[in-house]
Amino acid sequence: MDDRPEATDAETEAVETSSDAPTAYERDFYLWCLQQAELLRLRRFAQADLPNIVEELESMGRSLRSSLRSSYRLVIAHLLKWEYQPAMRSASWEITILRERSHIEDIEEDNPSLRAEASSFVESAYGRARKEAQTETKLPLSAFPAECPYTLDQLRDPDWLPA
């Protein structure tokens, strides 16, 4: 089943006269996306707004990377809080851990090349996660390990929590 919305007459006409594509890009991004997809589907590359298409594709990739790194940061911060401040454990922390692990699983399942970069995401996210845990727990930063104490398998495991 095709989930793409059918193009309206105005959209079809706009594709036919897409010499104003950069203006459409600035004026109505959704319509621009439909137009550009149709032009590419029709292999009318000369009429497509290639510079903006390239920019949007690169932006989508950066957004996915950022989203995955953010999910790892949230999981790590909450695991640190869970481990180093057990008296304050809450369902909210556990729900955040579960939600972000699901998000990690979804992104990595759909984007295996990002899964291959997970170690670097964890490494870059750990400092911020550590600082967030320190700020929320009011423990000294030195209470938390300088390096991430969790393996990728632990970070991804929907059932694992520190003792």
What is the count of β-strands?
A: 0
Summarize the helix and strand pattern as letters.
HHHHHHHH
Strand content: under 5%
Task: Measure the end-to-end span.
Answer: 46 Å
Q: What would you call the shape?
A: elongated
Radius of gyration: 22 Å
Number of DSSP helical runs: 8
Unreliable sequence segments: 9-18
Question: What would your notes on this structure say?
Answer:
The chain has 163 residues and is an all-alpha fold. The model is unreliable at 9-18 (pLDDT under 50). The protein has two domains: 9-48, no CATH class; 63-156. The chain starts with 8 loop residues before the first helix and ends in a 7-residue tail after the last helix. 69% of the residues lie in helices and 0% in strands. The chain is built from eight helices and no strands.
Gist of the model:
The chain is mostly helical. It is 69% helix and 0% strand.
Kindly list the characteristics that best describe this protein.
2 domains; 163 residues; mainly alpha
Give the secondary structure arrangement, pairings included.
Blueprint: H1 9-16, H2 21-27, H3 29-41, H4 50-84, H5 91-110, H6 112-115, H7 118-137, H8 152-156
Helix pairs in contact: 1-3, 2-3, 4-5, 4-7
